[in-house]
Specification:
Shape: globular
Number of domains: 1
Number of helices: 1
Oligomer: single chain
Radius of gyration: 14 Å
Helix content: under 10%
Bound molecules: zinc ion
Length: 138
């Protein structure tokens, strides 16, 4: 879900994002909702170079999905059964595989580059910070 408008980004087994390349070219990208699955789909003419930073936007409200905690991470929300909610963060650098699933009492990381974002290495410190950020948004 988009953290701004609450709209569902998940359609037909993919998460759909509106993206901008650094040269302002716009496109749509489909990612897997499965954490740790880095397959993606997009128009064949819409090429991303490895290492390129891509700006992610909600296709419904057009707001940026760049996270507050690191400008290289995208932030979305995830619902699971029983009212459980997570914050999902993943890298917006093409080819970089880092995903983090965070809730008040759980933390899970995936991807070969997951060690890259030092914020999440401070395992005991991330929890109060994430909570504070959430409170500020409300
Ligand atoms: Zn939105």
């Amino acid at each position: 879900m988009c953290p701004h408008c609450g709209g569902y980004l998940n359609v037909a087994g993919h998460i759909i994002f509106s993206v901008n390349k650094s040269n302002k070219k716009k496109g749509l990208i489909l990612l897997s909702p499965q954490i740790g699955n880095y397959t993606s789909d997009k128009h064949k003419e819409f090429n991303l170079a490895k290492g390129e930073a891509v700006a992610f936007f909600c296709p419904m409200c057009q707001k940026t999905l760049t996270s507050d905690i690191d400008e290289n991470l995208v932030h979305v929300r995830m619902h699971e059964g029983a009212g459980k909610e997570f914050d999902i963060y993943f890298s917006r650098i093409a080819g970089e595989q880092s995903t983090y699933q965070v809730s008040d009492d759980e933390f899970f990381k995936a991807g070969k580059d997951a060690g890259r974002y030092t914020y999440f290495k401070l395992s005991d410190k991330y929890k109060p910070l994430v909570k504070r950020k959430r409170r500020q948004k409300k």
